[in-house]
Design brief:
This protein is mostly helical. About 75% of the residues lie in helices and about 0% in strands. The mean pLDDT is about 90. It is a multi-pass membrane protein. Keywords: Cell membrane, Membrane, Transmembrane, Transmembrane helix, Transport.
């Protein structure tokens, strides 16, 4: 019997992977997709124009083209989101694997710090950190990373503890295997699949957190074309110019749904319980 092609076998994953690639390509080729329109320049003579052939998403209160700002906003939002996920994945996985492998006081210190971070509501703590550091996209990323690494640390630790005292691990230690080799050869391969699934499913959530930070004034600053900040700008004109909020909000909704479904599809493929 002929074996099915991977992409034909996992149609849902393939569908959402294609959509995710399209979204990333739109962000990369924003100048082409936007028709060369500068998202930062506008004319007050064209302020708050409704969607038309000239401006398909309308214009904002500064006369800037909202379509161009939404397209360029994909760059800022995706770059920040991927950066956050990569950082919390690296930091959390590293600390979790170290805690699980070494145990003792190292494990206690790392896990107590994680418990302390988890005792605060996530977004509130992120806002507090961003408020102390100052409002900027860079500081918003740091704030979200500070709050969210704990999940990966606890998950990585639990996955390492499952095999830490297995016979083959103890045998490798007895035969003289060094700590870096043990971690790279036995610990990480056991933990990575589950952690990768978690990272993929977190992309949508991290994007929403960063958008919330910008919406509340702790992230992107004017005149940056960032979706959360664009929602903040449109809030004052929601009755007279609702398109200022509709299109950035729709962009966030679509991207979050696509990456959430992509993460769920990836989980179905990599889940060891899957038949």
């Amino acid at each position: 019997m002929k074996k099915k092609n991977f992409f034909a076998q996992y149609k849902q994953f393939t569908f959402f992977l294609i959509l995710a690639v399209v979204i990333v390509l739109i962000a990369v080729f924003a100048p082409v997709v936007s028709g060369g329109v500068d998202p930062l320049k506008g004319s007050l003579d064209e302020a708050l124009l409704a969607p038309s052939k000239a401006h398909i998403f309308g214009t904002d209160k500064m006369g800037r083209d909202i379509f161009a700002r939404v397209i360029y906003g994909a760059r800022a939002s995706l770059t920040a989101t991927f950066g956050v996920v990569a950082l919390i994945f690296f930091i959390g996985t590293t600390l979790g694997v170290i805690a699980g492998y070494f145990g003792g006081i190292v494990d206690s210190v790392i896990m107590r710090i994680a418990d302390m971070m988890l005792s605060f509501p996530g977004l509130v703590l992120a806002l507090a950190v961003a408020g102390i550091m100052g409002a900027s996209m860079k500081n918003a990323i740091v704030a979200v990373v500070v709050v969210n690494w704990t999940k990966y640390a606890r998950l990585g630790r639990s996955l390492v503890l499952k095999i830490r005292h297995c016979d083959y691990v103890e045998a490798a230690i007895v035969t003289g295997s060094k700590t870096p080799y043990m971690i790279l050869r036995y610990m990480l391969p056991n933990a990575l699949p589950t952690l990768i699934i978690t990272a993929a499913t977190d992309i949508g959530g991290m994007m929403l957190e960063l958008a919330a930070m910008s919406f509340l004034g702790f992230g992107a600053k004017p005149p940056a074309p960032e979706w959360g900040y664009m929602l903040n700008e449109g809030r004052a004109c929601i009755q007279s110019a609702p398109w200022m909020m509709i299109f950035p909000g729709l962009a966030i909704f679509i991207v979050v749904v696509v990456f959430n479904m992509l993460g769920d599809s990836l989980r179905d493929i990599l889940d060891p319980k899957d038949e």
